[in-house]
Amino acid sequence: MASLSSWKEIPLGGLIKEPQSSRYNKTGSWRTERPVLEQDACIRCTLCWVYCPEPAILELPKPYTTKKGIKYNVTYEINYDYCKGCGICSQVCPTKAIKMVPEVS
Ligand code: SF4
Ligand code: SF4
Question: Could you report the per-residue pLDDT of 92-101, keeping only the tens digit for each?
Fold first, then answer.
């Protein structure tokens, strides 16, 4: 019966050789549903930005005025390169400004 290797003989694994290399892993390709954000329904509460596990919600310094004339200094947008379509943002949004729709290629 072959003897087992000691832990000192096992090669190192899980090394991160290049910091921030996870940006090359575009997790958006996993998605079956995509979140669609309705800017006029968004009250800029930040909850989607806080809860997104990727994070794939971007908080951008882009002014936006709603059709009713409400002015905001920031805009939330979704980075579809990394959004996995988990739907958490849609669940936490208090105004239902984010709807999940089927992903079509
Ligand atoms: S669906 Fe999930 S991964 Fe995509 S933006 Fe919403 S919370 Fe983030
Ligand atoms: S959770 Fe909804 S209302 Fe709040 S910032 Fe996100 S999209 Fe806007």
Answer: 999 999 999 9
